[in-house]
Amino acid sequence: MRVLGIDPGLTRCGVGVVEGSVGRPLTLIDVNVIRTSASEHIAQRLVTIERGLDAWLDEFQPDAVAVERVFARSDSSTIMGTAQASGIALVVAARRGLPVALHTPSEVKAAVSGSGRADKAQVGAMVTRILRLDAPPKPADAADALALAITHIWRGGAQARIDAALAAAGRRP
């Protein structure tokens, strides 16, 4: 399974592609961030993110997309931009008919580090270890995107098998 992880952000939108399956070593395909300038109008920034995500989908042809679920923080200006970038990510994936999963930050932290309260450095260290990298991906948004893809492969892949088994048994997933 090949998964595009997206850590939505208006200034830096982390993107990372991981390939693998549960119980097998995972492989980093590519990782980066899509950047926009705060001096640009919000609409243009969202178009830049959309075009960037479309380019990643064209180049890497993922089987699924995993996006960080937006949650309330104290800074409403930050959450608004994150939510807008998240919406763009959902639209570009849905437009192509790709399965999209939303994972909470604590779910991702728990999946890759064993603790839902892990800090960014711990997540980066575990992504480095899981993917057998020489150094943690920078910036943290890139590492977070990879953590989302890893989480989806480990958890989303298992959920897909459960749903398929239920469907085969004639029950709704």
Description:
This protein is of the alpha/beta class and 173 residues long. Helices cover 51% and strands 18% of the residues. It is built from five helices and five strands. A five-stranded mixed beta sheet has the order 3-2-1-4-5. The protein is globular and about 50 Å long. The model has no long low-confidence stretch (mean pLDDT 92).
Short description:
The chain has helices at 42-60, 76-95, 105-113, 120-130, 140-168; strands at residues 2-7, 12-19, 27-35, 64-68, 100-103. With 173 residues, it is an alpha/beta fold.
Our count of domains comes out at: 1
Quaternary class: single chain
At the first level of CATH, what is the class? Alpha Beta
Percentage of β-strand residues: 15-25%
**What's the arrangement of strands in the largest beta sheet?**
3-2-1-4-5
Q: How far do the termini sit from each other? A: 20 Å
Order of helices and strands: EEEHEHEHHH
Largest sheet: 5 strands, mixed
Q: Round the Cα radius of gyration to an integer and report it.
A: 16 Å
> What's the architecture in CATH terms?
2-Layer Sandwich
Number of strands: 5
Q: What share of the residues lie within helices? A: 40-55%
Total of helices: 5
InterPro entries: RNaseH-like_sf, RNaseH_sf, X-over_junc_endoDNase_Mg_BS, X-over_junc_endoDNase_RuvC
EC number: 3.1.21.10
Cofactor: Mg(2+)
Binding site for Mg(2+) 1: 7, 141
Set out the fold topology.
Layout: E1 2-7, E2 12-19, E3 27-35, H1 42-60, E4 64-68, H2 76-95, E5 100-103, H3 105-113, H4 120-130, H5 140-168
Parallel strand pairs: 1-4, 4-5
Antiparallel strand pairs: 1-2, 2-3
Helix pairs in contact: 1-2, 3-5, 4-5
